[in-house]
Amino acid sequence: MMLAADMANSVANSGHSYAMTYASSQLTPAAALTEKFAGLQQVAFLKRIAEQEDLQPLISTLQQIAVHVLDCTSMRCAINSVPEQVGVVATTIEGFLDSLPKNRDDPDAHVQDERFFPRMGRTHIIMPFNVNYTGKSIRTVPYTHQDSPSLRLLARLMTTKFLHQEIREKGGAYGGGATSGSGVFQYYSYRDPNSVETLDVFDRSVQWAVDGSFTDQDVDEAKLSVFSQIDGPVPPGSKGMTRFVHGITDEQRQQHRQRLFLATRQSLIESAQRYLPEDRGESAVAILGPQNEKTMNRPDWNVIEDIDETLVVHTSN
């Protein structure tokens, strides 16, 4: 039961991440899976399991899951090794795979949830905190899209030149900013004494970007920051994992890098105009924090007072 306790404690330490994940889960199927396996839904699920006295139903369920998971047909393996050991390791892995059952002839390479549909809206999840963790997500474009690098730079630029000052220095939060990736543009605030006021800051940051209230030098500084991240040292155990996990090839990474290098102030303005205004696309908001009169009894807010309610799966009728 330590896992359940650890995850519950992590909400207070990383509440902004849980808020962003929950908001994004309303917009894309991939984010919905992330929420289910690593978000508030997982916290609520483990909490429910920890409260069970009879674990036999859980054991039976795990045995049924094992039949599907421990199937060599649906497994892929990655090896990170010195050249001299690749043959030995590969033989060992092949032996392990051969020992597993093969119940599927031609498994589908992609998981699709036909029940999923985007749910734009605002959710306030009541938590026993004295401060708020805020997340807002906007559905944008995938990594390989030509506008993805501009959105990535915009997130860095808006964080350092606008959001930090407004959310932390003026608003009193421990931190705040924006990030872009996996098809969503995300805002966040951390240990924030404000709630809906921070959402107004997010909206004002869009107008700041659309108006081009930044310089060419600001763009260059954002590029340096982003390049220092993508060109940083890669631990030996992580080499090749971007392609293995996400399917992003070296050629796609280089193209993304080249587009980052060629991005201009004008391309950032155009991307901000194209994706970030409220009336241009799909967005969702989540706040984790104490009860708040500004969200209670409001038709535009969904207030969740019990974390178990996050386990409700929203599907189309």
Descriptive notes:
The protein is of the alpha/beta class and 317 residues long. The chain is 50% helix and 13% strand. It is built from twelve helices and six strands. Strands 3-4-2-5-1-6 form a six-stranded mixed sheet, with helices on both faces. The longest helix is centred in the middle third of the chain and has 23 residues. The two termini are 36 Å apart.
Summarize the structure.
It contains twelve helices and six strands. By secondary structure, it is of the alpha/beta class.
Structure annotation, total helices: 12
User: What's the β-strand tally?
Assistant: 6
Strand content: 5-15%
User: How far from one another are the termini?
Assistant: 36 Å
Quick check: average pLDDT? 90
Percent helix, as a range, is 40-55%
* Uncertain spans: 313-317
Please tell me what the overall shape is.
globular
**SSE order:** HHHHHHEEHEEHHHHHEE
Largest sheet: 6 strands, mixed
**What structural class should be given to the helix and strand makeup?**
alpha/beta
The strand line-up of the biggest sheet is 3-4-2-5-1-6
Radius of gyration equals: 22 Å
